[in-house]
Amino acid sequence: MSMDIDITLTVNGERVTERVEARKTLVDFVRDDLGLTGSHVGCEHGVCGACTMRVDGVIVRGCLMLAAQCDGATVETIEGLSDSGEVADLQAAFEQRNALQCGYCTPGMLTAAQELLQQAQARNAVPSRDEIREHISGNYCRCTGYHAIVDAVESVAKARAGAKS
């Protein structure tokens, strides 16, 4: 017997009210019920970072959070971050630096990188390459070897801080 719950949340700026199965994960809700397929399902154990999105301004693993836990919350997926232009410079840098190949990890990687850059901007700092590596370490990429990703994030961090890359 499944138990369904009514939830209301804001997803990418739009208020959504849906009836969900109590055990449905956030990433499955966003993908299956809302048709926002930018966040990917990878390991389903919170290890790979493919399902990374923001809930109330903090990145979470969508496979570890239940949709019901987001009742009343603000959820931002890669579609929302992209449509708002918030990560446009990161997306351009990923393309310019060849920091994406198959693209499976890219939405989660961009979301994690954006969080780091926001934290750095709040401190008026530019994160070091080691800090970048540490912050994205929960997002697995099997294609790039990470060097190009770190290059892209570093170039955006410097550009946002007004420094020359």
Describe this structure in words.
- By secondary structure, the protein is of the alpha+beta class.
- The chain has 2 domains: 4-82, Ubiquitin-like (UB roll) (Roll), CATH 3.10.20.30; 87-161, DNA polymerase, domain 1 (Orthogonal Bundle), CATH 1.10.150.
- It has 6 helices and 5 strands, in the order ββαβββααααα.
- The chain has a 5-stranded mixed beta sheet with strand order 2-1-5-3-4.
- Helix 3 (88-96) crosses helix 6 and helix 4 packs parallel to helix 6 (147-161).
- The radius of gyration is 16 Å and the shape is globular.
- The mean pLDDT is 95.
Summarize the structure.
The chain is of the alpha+beta class and 165 residues long.
CATH superfamily of the largest domain: Beta-grasp domain
> Would you report the number of β strands?
5
Query: What composes the largest sheet?
Result: 5 strands, mixed
- Which fold name corresponds to the CATH topology of the largest domain? Ubiquitin-like (UB roll)
| Terminal CA distance | 57 Å
Instruction: Bin the strand percentage.
Output: 15-25%
Average pLDDT number: 95
Q: Which runs of at least 5 residues are low in confidence (pLDDT < 50)? A: none
Please state the CA-atom Rg, rounded to the nearest Å: 16 Å
Binned, the helix content reads 25-40%
Total helix count? 6
Q: In what order do the strands lie side by side in the largest sheet?
A: 2-1-5-3-4
SSE-based structural type = alpha+beta
The 3D shape can be described as globular
Number of domains in the coordinates? Answer: 2
Task: Tell me which CATH architecture of the largest domain applies here.
Answer: Roll
